[in-house]
Amino acid sequence: NRGLGGEGVLFITHDTLEEMAGRMARERIPGMNYVIQERITPPLVLEDGVQKDWNLRVFISRDIEGRPLASDMEVRIDVIGKPINISQTAQVLTIEELGVRLGLTPEALARLREDIGRTAVEAYLAVEEAMRADGALGPDQTATDFMGADIIVAQEGDRLVPYVMEVNDHHSGGMWDLDDHLRQQGSGPGIEPARIGRASQDWVATMARRARIYRDRLDQRQWWSALGGVGVKGAITGMLLGLFLPALGWPDGLQPSEI
Asked: What angle do CA 223, 229, 235 make, to 5 degrees?
């Protein structure tokens, strides 16, 4: 996978090992590495006689205390045997809609949602810890204001257990697709107007808080020096934003005084 929406993902079995090894050798791009992972197949969804595979994208931002949290998540579903990615042909579901298709009880669905969110946050923190160990982050620095964790779920006995496939930085896609699905469906399991844009709002609120922290760390002299560097156009832009942003509505939990 070269980070291009599922492009370059291959499925290898014992029967196709030699064929796929040859293909990988022919198609390999100089400087690109392959990561080989065990294939995890979740409980399949049967729709119109077709078996469908699925995984999740979990959107992680930070709360007002700076702690990572899972703002929302979407299910990506497609015919089994191919990369399950929205950039390919996968469709979007809410996790509640998936629960209906899998026949999960409300209790089982709530436990699965909690386990997925916790696993995604643990992956986020693991990335930060690794970056600190490598010297890429200082003691009080954080890796990113936003991350998208790709989660796949395995059936282990009577439990559904989430595993991390990969994590993505702020370039992570999928928020628009989830919001668009919520708008188009209008009603259904997990579909409510208040949910539309939740992940985006949390991300913007996180960025705004981070900007406020940066501002507060500048002393008065540095602040005026930075303002002088912005120039007249920048100062006018700042004043206009201060006038018009409140009319557009502030993200939940964020007040004008926090920017």
From this structure: 80
> What digits encode the pLDDT tens for the residues 200-241?
888 888 888 878 877 777 755 565 565 555 555 555 555 555
- Distance, in Å, from the CA atom of 53 to the CA atom of 227, rounded to the nearest integer, reads 52
Neighbours of 53 (CB within 10 A): 20
Residues 6+ apart with CB under 8 A from 11: 39, 81
Note whether 80 and 51 are within 8 A (CB). Answer: yes
Q: Is 88 helix (H, G, I), strand (E, B) or coil?
A: coil
**Through-space distance between the first and last CA atoms of the chain, rounded to whole angstroms:** 39
What's the predicted TM-score (pTM) here?
0.75
Measured distance CA(51)–CA(77) in Å, rounded: 10
Contacts of range 248-254, beta carbons closer than 8 Å, 24 or more positions apart: 251/201, 251/202, 251/204, 251/205, 251/208, 252/198, 252/201, 252/202, 252/205, 253/64, 253/205, 254/204, 254/205, 254/208, 254/209
The per-residue pLDDT for range 47-64, each reduced to its tens digit, is 999 999 999 999 998 888
How many angstroms from the chain centroid is the CA of residue 151? 10
Residue in 70, 61, 83 with CA at minimum distance from that of residue 115: 70
Q: How far apart are CA 84 and CA 150, in angstroms?
A: 11
Task: Determine contact, residues 148/167, Cβ cutoff 8 Å.
Answer: yes
Q: Please report the pLDDT score of residue 170 as a whole number.
A: 64
Q: Which residue has the tokens 């926090």?
A: 258
Tokens of 36: 């080989």
